[in-house]
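Support reply, case 0932

Customer input (verbatim):
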Amino acid sequence: MKDNAISLENKQNRLTCRQRVLAALNHQAVDRVPVDLGGTHCSGAHVSVITQLRKALGLAKMDERVKVTDIYQAVGDKIHVVWMDGSDLSSQNSLFCSPDGYKELYLPYAKKVNDWIHANTKWKTIKHCCGGCEPLIDGFIDAGYDVLNPVQCSAAGMDPQHLVNKFGDRIVFWGGGVDTQQTLPFGTPDEVAGQVRERVRIFSQKNGFIFNPIHNIQCGTPVENVLAMLRALDRKV
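Our regenerated output:
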């Protein structure tokens, strides 16, 4: 009876998926790391991967086709996060825009919009920037962005521990969970699981972390690796 009582208490204290995301957005502790697969334009998966995943989990008939559509949530106060800017300002190894250029050309406009959102709504705002954008992150924060995505840790200057140490208490990292250039498509399931656990450990140090793979899961990614990723996140599959 005592064990059953403890189990019931744990279930009652468990956060919902939405509560975990909201807690991470506010740099609050969570019971387990929140996970995003498909909530943004660059955290989804190729339709072939979804098809194989549904088959592996017994969720679809063998001949059932999968349709991928954009989902827009624009329902007033039910919105929690707004995708503000998807401009890539950096590449794998360099910048398209210098920090001074960003502050002159982009920051004033972004700050004006972000300030209005924060003054008039409860929404959080996302800045998307692939590549080695570390020199620009201070500018993103000064512009008022709450969240950085997709946190491309394989790019120059984007070491996870460095990012957390320097920016982790000032911006939420939405991404960085596993490398979709090498580890997820070409690694073993054990390598995938190991990287996922390591990234969760590092990015969760200051509570502002929402897991998703670094950009979309690519065509040809082994379903065994996707399942290993989910199991490493303590999701039942």
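We compared this against your earlier run and they match. Two observations from our side: The beta strands are 81-85, 124-128, 147-149, 172-174, 209-210. The CA atoms of residues 19 and 117 lie 21 Å apart. Please reopen the case if you see a mismatch on your end.
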